[in-house]
Design goal:
With 58 residues, the chain is mostly helical. The chain has 2 helices and no strands. The chain has a domain of 35 residues.
Amino acid sequence: MDLSKPGTQANLEAAFGGESMANRKYLFFADVAKQLGQNELAKLFRETAAQETEHAFA
C-alpha cells in the first residue's frame, strides 16, 4: 500500500475510525437489547459488531 500519496493515510484513519465507532454502537445496542430480554436481537447486533471489526481491519 502506497501511503506516500496525499490523503491516503488520513483516509485510512478515517475509515478505521468509522468502522470502530460502528462496532461500539452495535455492541451498545446489543447490551440494551439483552437488558430488554431481546436475546435474538442482541445476538444480531453482536454479529453485526463483529462484521464491523472485520471491515476495520480489511
